[in-house]
Amino acid sequence: MATTMKHETPTSMAPAIAAATPAHALRPVVDYELLFDCVHCGLCLEACPTYVITRAEVDSPRGRIYLMKSLADGSLTLDADAVRHLDLCLECRGCETACPSGVHYGKLIEQSRVYVERNYRRGLAERLRNRVINAIFPYPARMRVLLAPVRLAERAGLRPLMRRLAPSAMRDWLDLIPPLTPRKPAPHSPGDAATVAADAPSAVVHHGCVAQVLTDAENWNTERALAAVGYRVAHLARTQCCGALDLHNGNLERAREFARANVREFEQSGADAIVSAASGCAAVFAGYGELLKDDRELAAAAARVAGRVSDLSSLMVARGHRFTHEFRATVTYHDSCHLAHGLGVRDAPRAILRAIPGVNLIEMAESDLCCGSAGSYNLTEPAMARALVGRKAGNIAATGADYVVLGNPGCELQIAAELRRRGARTRVIHLADFLALAAGANPSRTDGTAPAV
Ligand code: SF4
Ligand code: SF4
């Protein structure tokens, strides 16, 4: 299987099948019957970012499903080529939205990655890179230590020099790190609580792991926006990684450990709505019922948690919030994959933006095509990630918008890095921060000052 197999149909892929390896077949790991939901219609192809870039059948959802089936049947060897095509998938789930047959692609690719990690030995460099990512990213304290030299360089005004001296592979990583200006975490503003009725519905915002280090203002602004529309904001005693990184990397056991810890915390919070400023995390929470369905202690609680997951824009629309402040700006909206394809939320953020007096919303082309961020994908697959974010930046530029608003910090960092590289004037901003800005507050403040959304 090679990327040279452009435009081949699944049938014509058959001659490329290598020697059978039934002993290592994918079949015990994957929900085999789900593979047959795909009727090979190809309607998902143009919705697939990797197919759009490579035009190779094997880098399309249909091609990958055929590949999974061949692995499941034991008629295809799990070699470097097969792993390459599975690795290149962003797990954006754009194909699920496009598929008329209801193929559960996200589930299939997650299961396939578990199989790959158990049965395929990667090269040393890849193993080391993955270990570093897995050992650091889910843990905010470790992330802060890792970022300390960047923070020091920034304080000394040496970040541009640091970037220039860094090896090119490192430069892409450095570009993704936003300005690390000191931020003061603060309790919720008493002013917010005073406006909320005691019997109002409650919501809790999960602050994430990477997000609480790099983009914590979005968490606080999400809480304030919820309080401003009448939610009682509860807080978690402890925040664990949602498990997305492990799910995407085939590390099912640690994903379940994180899920169990989060389910306990969410249950303890008693919140009616579970929210994350990172739609990638929210989509994982929504999948906890499935992830822990065989957990004797927590299966029922996990299903309850999954059923309470929502997002800021949907909750605001449900409360019928009216905006009073005018904010004159031309805005475009980027659909973060897991908000649009994972949670099916597309209209609510747009409705919120249109409801702000003075905001002119212009749709960009391919608004729901992945920007290439996809968790740690932009670190592990930089070439595809750069191709995709370049395409996204072109679509943003064509709108002439002042702001591109979105609902996921990963997309924000990815798109902001590309716009900085291009010297573009458009500013990338999370919806929660945009609401704070539109209300006249400094969106990066985390000192307890509540914007009157
Ligand atoms: S999840 Fe995204 S990248 Fe993967 S096959 Fe589906 S559309 Fe393509
Ligand atoms: S749209 Fe669905 S059924 Fe059609 S090829 Fe894609 S995954 Fe298969």
Concise structural overview:
This protein is of the alpha/beta class. The protein has 24 helices and 7 strands.
Provide an overview of this structure.
It is a single chain. With 453 residues, the protein is an alpha/beta fold. Among the domains are: 11-119, Fumarate Reductase Iron-sulfur Protein, Chain B, domain 2; 320-438, Rossmann fold (3-Layer(aba) Sandwich). It has 24 helices and 7 strands. The protein has helices at residues 49-54, 61-73, 80-87, 94-98, 105-119, 124-136, 140-155, 159-165, 168-176, 190-194, 210-214, 216-228, 244-249, 252-269, 279-286, 288-291, 299-307, 312-318, 337-342, 347-355, 377-380, 382-399, 409-422, 431-438; strands spanning 202-206, 232-234, 273-276, 329-333, 359-361, 403-406, 427-430. The strands form 2 sheets. The chain has a 4-stranded parallel β-sheet, sandwiched between helices. Strands 2-1-3 form a 3-stranded parallel β-sheet. α12 (216-228) crosses α24 (431-438) and α22 packs across α23 (409-422). The longest helix has 18 residues, at 252-269. The radius of gyration is 22 Å and the shape is globular. The site of one iron/sulfur cluster has 15 residues, from α2 and α4.
> Can you tell me the overall shape?
globular
Return Rg in Å: 22 Å
Total number of beta strands = 7
Described by strand count, sense and barrel closure, the largest sheet is:
4 strands, parallel
Beta content comes to 5-15%
pLDDT < 50 stretches: 1-21, 184-194, 445-453
Question: Can you identify the CATH class of the domain at 320-438?
Answer: Alpha Beta
For the record, give the distance between the C-alpha atoms at the N and C termini, rounded to a whole number. 53 Å
Spatial ordering of strands, largest sheet: 5-4-6-7
CATH architecture of the domain at 320-438: 3-Layer(aba) Sandwich
- Estimate the helix proportion, in percent: 40-55%
- Kindly name the structural category: alpha/beta
- Helical stretch tally: 24
Q: Please, what is the average pLDDT?
A: 89
Instruction: Enter the CATH topology name of the domain at 320-438.
Output: Rossmann fold
Ions, cofactors and other ligands present here are: iron/sulfur cluster
